[in-house]
Amino acid sequence: MSIMQGGKLCLLQVGKCFSLASNTVIKRCASTGGTDLIGRHFLTLKDYNQSEIEHLLWTASDLKTRYKENKEVFQPLIGKSIAMIFQKRSTRTRLSTETGMSLLGGHAVFLGPDDIHLGVNESLQDSAKVLSRMTDVVLARVYGQSDLEELSKYSTVPIISGLSDMYHPLQILADFQTLQEHFGQLKGLKLAWVGDGNNVVHSFLMGCPKLGMDLNIATPKGYDVDPKVKEDAVTLVKQSGTSMNFTRDPMEAVAGTDVVITDTWISMGQEAESKKRIKDFMGYEVTKEMMAAAGPHAIFMHCLPRHKEEVSDEVFYDEKRSVVWQEAENRKWTVMAVMLNLLQQYMPLHPKPTF
């Protein structure tokens, strides 16, 4: 049974209301319980509050248990499809999204640079409108954050960031899941970032304060985090009561921390700068000595792909302290959590982890 009420169609039998406004993603205005993220875009953790991030992580943990441990066949997204736009290649983003959507019962369509030229042969606005009519959700791995924002402006289906030069929110969800699994909670952890002030650390800055984690950041001169991102992070830190420190000294950054994190020094599109960057990052390699300066139980993280100048083999392949493979696997469970929650309301079956 349904009635018109205040310009909205109310489905009384399930207690839901859906806006009839055109040119917008359909959004639920009354919830049946749990966290409702249906129709939201996922472009940056800046747009998500603590409870929403925790719900995505809870979903990821729940799905990992259901599929990996319990061997369940659970296909809530049968008949759904995702378009995957890749301006930049990626092993983990492509594999995690394709295999994750398949497990959920849906279908993934890969669109590489030879398949779609955003803003070149067709405007971003037109691409968004076409994709919206043929798929249920779009993941875009692009250079400019503005491209994601333009797609989301005109899309009537959720847009998920697979990475941009500014943010990499899917990676940070996987990192948070890995930290929760290893330490049993997130609140109170102290993280150290050693390396480039890039999209990955930008996403840590948007997420760590909301979940009660402190963050130290060591970057060489000329490779600082974006000033606007830093400004936003300072606001979040003040609101949360956490701490955030910036330094040029990697040893100072890692001192007494629980987690040491680095990333590639030469991202895609920066290959021409490789010699200069390797020189500028001298002293930033994560070594056994650097890990010894961290806390006695500190772990090492890297989102991959890894190059030897960034971290020694001794640290990278340390089975006790390096969690890079668990971190990589969790890319799958977290992107599944995002896709599922943006397409339908999901209440996990298993108890909520401690955050």
From TrEMBL:
Gene3D superfamilies noted in UniProt: Aspartate/ornithine carbamoyltransferase
Signal peptide (from-to): none
Limits of the Aspartate/ornithine carbamoyltransferase Asp/Orn-binding domain: 187-340
Pathway recorded for this protein: Nitrogen metabolism; urea cycle; L-citrulline from L-ornithine and carbamoyl phosphate: step 1/1
Protein's GO biological process: citrulline biosynthetic process; L-arginine biosynthetic process via ornithine; urea cycle
Listed InterPro entries: Asp/Orn_carbamoyltranf_P-bd, Asp/Orn_carbamoylTrfase, Asp/Orn_carbamoylTrfase_sf, Asp_carbamoyltransf_Asp/Orn-bd, Orn/put_carbamltrans, OTCase_ArgI
Single Gene Ontology MF annotation: amino acid binding
Keywords: Amino-acid biosynthesis, Arginine biosynthesis, Transferase
Similarity comment: Belongs to the aspartate/ornithine carbamoyltransferase superfamily. OTCase family.
Quaternary assembly: Homotrimer.
Protein name, UniProt field: ornithine carbamoyltransferase
Provenance organism: Lingula anatina
Lineage of the organism: Eukaryota, Metazoa, Spiralia, Lophotrochozoa, Brachiopoda
Gene: LOC106167056
